[in-house]
């Protein structure tokens, strides 16, 4: 599997160049002695590439580790709250495995960055987490919408009940009005 993971690289990774030994010797002989001149100014693009490859930019890796720590705490909370029921939800179990595996790979990556061949897998796992976060947001929005719909249905039912009560009351008042009109006619009273 490690041979296939080499195809998944991150932006800024050095592309492996395979040169024959003779090519290396020829290339090293073509180097000129130092001239004492400064190299030409780097372009904006080259400056960005240098920034992304620098040690200072690796702060984002630690930020990723902090987020994964948060997800680990969330996972432990779910395990504590749901216990064995948690394992009945295959999607949650898979997500938990992704979080734990990402966390372990991030820790390994910190201490053995030069020997780490699972960068591609780490990227895929991070993409999975992004997809899960987006899914979580969508589920949250859907739950809120369902809650609003439920409240609106309750309100509608209440209004229908109130309209029915008012209609019954109006019918009774109409009948009373007709009875009184009939009584007035019977006694020949104009109104």
TrEMBL record:
Bilayer-crossing residues are: 59-81
Region forming the signal peptide:
none
How is the protein disposed in the membrane? Answer: Multi-pass membrane protein
Which residue intervals define the domain Ion transport in the entry? 56-136
Q: Which residues form a coiled coil?
A: 149-190
Instruction: List the subcellular locations.
Output: Cell membrane
One GO term in the molecular function aspect is: voltage-gated proton channel activity
Q: Which domain of life is it from?
A: Eukaryota
* Protein keywords: Cell membrane, Coiled coil, Ion channel, Ion transport, Membrane, Transmembrane, Transmembrane helix, Transport, Voltage-gated channel
Per the record, its GO cellular-component terms are: monoatomic ion channel complex; plasma membrane
Taking the first listed entry, what is the main subcellular location of this protein, grouped into a coarse class? membrane
Q: Which Pfam families match?
A: Ion_trans
- For this entry, the protein name equals Voltage-gated hydrogen channel 1
